[in-house]
């Protein structure tokens, strides 16, 4: 029986593997700058030439990009599910807003479930900070700054995805982040216009979701996450229907002002 020799693993291979793991698990995020070469080499306990080789190989793979005089960065396009032109198309279409919420309901219910099962003490601290920031936005009573509130909401849901320790869910949610912020702002605006009780209802929904994850109640976390998104779906549906009724009323009113009494209005 012929057996070949086992080739020793090159140091650069180990560095590539470690950096790839850091990108995959979210320790290194899209757009983030790598530490300086000397710092990173000391941290890994490797030579700078080996580190340089590993970085070059990751750049060839498209995982890292170099900027002259600015160091090496994780590629910002990693995990991006939507291009900027597509985001612009989606933003102004109610049906697309609904579709995105349905997609979020599917993803975020699972994220919440796994976060409740797997969140570490570090994850819980990070999630608590995101929740408190969001709660402060609600408590301020300033519904005019929807941008800040939308960002805080999106960061809270992203923190849940990070706590799920599922890298596919994490990168899918992270890839949606900019679109998610836009979507959250649009949904919040619609819900505020619909009902003054919305603020307290959203606060309660996020509280229940946050506590279920912190306390490790996975089934409850999945339920509360799904219910939260379903609430937004229902609010969006009611707002769209209200808008359609108003448009019909305005068309009838406009038609009526041009009609001669007793005769049908002329078509133009």
Can you offer a commentary on this structure?
It contains eleven helices and two strands. It has a two-stranded antiparallel ribbon. The longest helix has 41 residues, at 218-258. It is mostly helical and 268 residues long.
Q: What would the principal axes of the Cα set say about the shape? A: elongated
Rg, nearest Å: 25 Å
The CA-CA distance between the termini, in Å, is: 91 Å
Secondary structure: helix percent: over 70%
Determine the mean pLDDT: 79
Could you tell me the strand content as a percent range?
under 5%
Q: Could you say which structural class the secondary elements and strand pairing correspond to?
A: mainly alpha
Biggest pleated-sheet summary: 2 strands, antiparallel
In total, the number of strands is: 2
Low-confidence runs: none
Helix count from the secondary structure assignment = 11
Order of the strands making up the biggest sheet: 1-2
Q: From N to C, what is the helix and strand string?
A: HHHEEHHHHHHHH
């Amino acid at each position: 029986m012929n057996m070949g020799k086992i080739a020793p693993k090159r140091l650069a291979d180990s560095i590539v593997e470690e950096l790839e793991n850091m990108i995959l698990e979210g320790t290194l995020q899209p757009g983030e700058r790598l530490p300086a070469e000397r710092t990173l080499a000391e941290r890994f306990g490797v030579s700078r030439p080996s580190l340089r080789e590993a970085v070059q190989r990751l750049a060839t793979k498209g995982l890292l990009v170099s900027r002259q005089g600015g160091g090496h960065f994780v590629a910002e396009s990693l995990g991006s599910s939507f291009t900027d032109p597509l985001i612009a198309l989606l933003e102004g279409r109610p049906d697309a807003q609904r579709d995105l919420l349905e997609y979020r309901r599917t993803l975020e219910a699972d994220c919440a479930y796994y976060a409740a099962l797997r969140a570490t003490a570090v994850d819980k601290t990070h999630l608590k900070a995101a929740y408190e920031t969001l709660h402060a936005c609600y408590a301020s009573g300033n519904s005019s700054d929807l941008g800040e509130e939308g960002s805080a909401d999106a960061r809270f849901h992203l923190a849940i995805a990070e706590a799920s320790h599922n890298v596919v869910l994490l990168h899918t949610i992270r890839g949606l982040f900019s679109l998610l912020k836009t979507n959250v702002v649009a949904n919040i605006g619609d819900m505020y216009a619909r009902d003054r009780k919305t603020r307290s209802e959203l606060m309660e929904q996020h509280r229940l979701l946050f506590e279920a994850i912190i306390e490790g109640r996975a089934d409850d976390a999945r339920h509360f996450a799904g219910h939260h998104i379903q609430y937004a779906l229902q609010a969006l549906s009611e707002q769209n229907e209200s808008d359609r009724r108003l448009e019909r009323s305005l068309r009838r009113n406009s038609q009526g002002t041009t009609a001669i009494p007793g005769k049908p209005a002329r078509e133009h």
